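Posting this for the archive.
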Amino acid sequence: MAAAKTFRVLPGFNLTLGYTLAYLSLIVLVPLAAVFLKTFTLSFAEFWSVVTAPRVLASYKLSFGMSLLAATINAVFGLMLAWALVRYSFPGKKLIDALVDLPFALPTAVAGIALTALYAKNGWLGQVLEPLGIQVAFKPLGVLVALVFIGLPFVVRTVQPILEDLDTELEEAAASLGAQRWQTFRHVILPILLPALMTGFALAFARAVGEYGSVIFIAGNIPMVSEITPLMIITKLEQYDYTGATAIATVMLLISFTLLLVINGLQAWTAKRTGRDR
């Protein structure tokens, strides 16, 4: 007896795969290839001179360092916020849940201006923090604040659905067996949440690395202090140094891709260990 033909809503595999590859090539691969091809017009000595200039190296350190730190902070506090929104009922819960998505909808320039006005010396928070020796605006700390602000929704919205599907009976069973709260979280809840948490971390990191609008206002753009790599690329473009801009963009692309590959590898490994890939 011939095997029953599987009904599929979408067209066949060949047509679907062909459309997917064509779309991916036009939207992603062709622009990236253009960046690499433009960079290859430089000799290796010229390329190395551009990407290892002191200001550029300082911008790498600031952009990637603050992006990783901001994603880590968002992973911790985003998990706490998602937990509170899912597990507790309190006045203003729906309002807070809606405000989580505000960085998605708010133009980045508006976010940068608002944060600068808030943390400047004469701002609501700045005038309190300044006497304590804490300077946020026009400092690397201001970059961190902006990146945390724009990256928080990625962690919350990634973890929240998993928490909603997580049965509280698992926690009750662990407690009935004598597990303490930390043991329940460490051995029961965290392994289930870890793949989603790492996905949110990766998304927050990716958004932070390429963020420009909200950062340039609060960073102050001081050379060797608070210049981010996207600003260096824009500066090169304004000087009509297109090959220099693509050279810096290529290095940024390679570092970002490597870090995201490592994060996705860790995510797949944790999903396999916890059985969440089935």
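The two ends are 31 Å apart (CA to CA). Residues 53-274 form a domain with the MetI-like fold fold (CATH 1.10.3720.10).
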